Amino acid sequence: MAPNSDLVVQTKQLSKIFRVGFWGKRVTAVDGLNLEVRPGEVFGFLGPNGAGKTTTLKMLMGLIYPTSGQARLFGRDLGGTETKARLGFLPESPYFYDYLTSREFLGFYGHLFGLWGAVLDKRVDELLELVGMTHAKDLQLRKFSKGMLQRVGIAQALINDPELVVLDEPMSGLDPIGRKEVRDLILRLKESGKTVLFSSHILHDAEVLCDRVAMILKGRLVACGRVADLLDRGVNHQVELIVDRLTSEGLDHLRPLADRVVMQGDRMLVVLKSQQQVQGALEIIRAAKASLVSLNPQKGSLEDLFIREVGGHRSPSEHRA
Amino acid sequence: MKILSIALNTFRENLRDKLLYNLLVFALLMIGSSILLMRLTLGEFHRLILDVGLGSINFFGVLIAIFVGIGLVNKEIEKKTIYTIVSKPVARYQFLLGKYLGLTITLLVNTVVMALGLLVVLHAQAVPVEGMFFKALALIFVEFMVITAIALLFSTFTSATLSAIFTLAMYVIGHLTADLQAFGAKMDSLSRGVLDGIYYLLPNLERFNLKGHVVHHLEVSGADLMLIVAYGVTYTAAILFSASLIFHRRDFR
């Protein structure tokens, strides 16, 4: 792999095979993954549970070793302390040293980056302020709710003012307010020029936040690109029309263009197969002297794409299940 | 500096662990109870107090070394706290040494507290304290260092329960290795070779036992003492080195 120092994350044919059970059965968790994350972007790493997201992130963080393939951060090999000094990482469902208070907790991580004394105190205060935890600075972590733990978890990931922030399922298990706070925080990180790589199976968050996303399934990359491009690609943009007083003759003309027609008294909902049908449908409506109440293009969502991709990769037996 | 930070955090973790205080209270009770035992014995009470006292310090220290030691790394992996440490600019061996050093500091503080307890009892019963008493304490502490390293080694590749069983087994065998060698001396050359090999591979923990010397007023020269300490430190270093090698290759799943 030609190292590209302009890329923050670069993987080439990255694979991980675990050996499980007494007989060491081989289980492929990540299979020939090629990823590129550019500086300053928010990159969403998506996939269902067990797709290999966490395994990939753990490889990038030096927690597990790849079986084959290559991975680089900032154009350098993984695992070096210089590279790690530029990283921030929040693991999935993090457990922390619950006998520590928030201050002690962040102080400890600060020490690992060589921060001490007044500089560290200032940084800890800033971070507690940033994640809205100043009120709980002297409370032991064992008394924290999940949302509070997630917030101090994010604070520890930012203690070294990292260039790349890697968050594993940062929104999972949080209530709607907590999720919004994490979303806002990610956007703030982006504004301050940081690169954010986060994994999620909550697609709405990714759609709102990400510049680009990668979707993986059973360890393999199934889609990667800008959110808008992925949504356009292959998604059949349907259009919903609501029409008043359409004659039965008009309806007969309209039916071939429609995917679905739902009658509600005089009013009907017509779902057109694609945007190409709009012009024809409008002419039919005009000719039948019916009135058009509304016209709504239906946007595809990552969820549709996701379901299609997952559905396409499942075996018939899995469909039945 | 990173090793020290991890060590201090481990020390703090130990200080906030109830298990430690339970063991410490038991140890102090045991030391105190030697006064009661003394009332049941005719004569020889000085020996009894010293023997029970030093034995208690040794026994409870080993319990702490094993049961806190096996959790040092395992707990970090099980609770996934290690994820946030290894992803920071900390080498894996630094993490391991930090954890080890942290528990060693805990054991040092514990040994001092237990020894002070014993000294109070000795003083109250007007038992004379000789230099050998402190030499014996020093070697008890060196034994703790060796046991902690062994517990740490096992916990880098196996579960907490198995680590505890293995470390306890090593502790027991470690006090019997001299017998192993003596046994081998009576056998054919192949068996002798194998038993000698095991004798040199396993720690000879009896070397650190000077309780008999204290009780019977026997002396150990400074040079011999230094040699035993050097043996303990070298053995510990070798175990920690092996643990680092295993830990370096490990996947944190």
Task: Name its key features.
A: alpha/beta; 14 strands; 35% helix; 29% strand; B: 253 residues; 11 helices; 81% helix
Structure, briefly:
Chain A contains twelve helices and 14 strands.
Could you describe the 3D structure shown?
The complex is a heterodimer of chains A (321) and B (253). By secondary structure, chain A is an alpha/beta fold. Chain A is built from twelve helices and 14 strands. Chain A has helices at residues 53-60, 81-84, 102-112, 117-130, 146-157, 176-191, 203-209, 227-232, 248-254, 278-287, 302-313, 316-320, and strands spanning 9-20, 25-37, 42-46, 68-73, 76-77, 87-90, 164-168, 195-200, 212-217, 220-226, 239-244, 258-264, 267-272, 291-297. Chain A has a six-stranded mixed β-sheet with strand order 6-7-8-3-9-10, sandwiched between helices. Chain A has a four-stranded antiparallel β-sheet with strand order 2-1-4-5, with helices on one face. In chain A, strands 12-13-11-14 form a four-stranded antiparallel β-sheet, covered by helices on one side. The two termini of chain A are 41 Å apart. Chain B has helices at residues 2-15, 18-40, 45-78, 81-86, 92-124, 131-155, 160-174, 177-185, 189-201, 211-215, 222-249. The radius of gyration of chain B is 20 Å and the shape is globular. By secondary structure, chain B is mainly α. The mean pLDDT of chain B is 89. The A-B interface holds A 18, 58, 61-65, 81-82, 84-85, 87, 89-91, 93-97, 99-100, 104, 108-109, 111-114, 153, 156-157, 160 and B 1-2, 5-6, 9, 12-13, 16-17, 79-91, 249, 251-253.
